[in-house]
Amino acid sequence: MEYNIKAILDGLKQRISTNDELIIQTPGGNIEMAKFYFSPPAETEEIDRLSTLFQVNLPQEYREFLLQHNGAKLFDIGFGECTDIYSINEIVETAELMPDIVPNFIPVARHPSCTIFIDTSREKKYMFSQAGGSEFNFLAMSFKEWIETLILSSGNYFEERIPQLLFKTIDDSELKIKKWLIEGYKL
């Protein structure tokens, strides 16, 4: 099987029941029934309009996702605990609500604890998260790697479990090393 967005999503869909549900384990050992919603594909013209609106080239893997599904809700266990991968319209609406985001950052998804962005100025390893404030954490992943890791972690917020060593801020879009790493980690 070829390693691409379609193969990753097809693998997930094979595990989902006919009711669009999957039993998952959440942190702490709890078992939950997660629901899944996949939107119909986006048209190539819609994706091209998004690129034109933001004046960027979208990563090929992300374009492939939109051609499969113009948005999705993954691992929905209720109470807002899910991952929303935005539709093109939701991307535009969300971007309008975020004043002065770092240039070339496009909001593409939301966890309850953070927003996920693509930095279109980077060709590889272009995913970032933001939990609020001016700091964007560098995830060092492509969209394909991000969505695969999300699926393999059963929708659990793996971003919180990995040390965020590098970041960007709204005021300065250069990658910087976290202060605690430079000064040494203190318990």
UniProtKB/TrEMBL annotation:
SUPFAM superfamilies: SMI1/KNR4-like
Residue ranges annotated for the Knr4/Smi1-like domain, each copy included: 41-149
UniProt superkingdom: Bacteria
SMART domains noted in UniProt: SMI1_KNR4
InterPro entries per the UniProt record, alphabetical: Knr4/Smi1-like_dom, Knr4/Smi1-like_sf
Pfam families: SMI1_KNR4
Designated name of the protein: Knr4/Smi1-like domain-containing protein
Organism from which the protein derives: Paenibacillus aceti
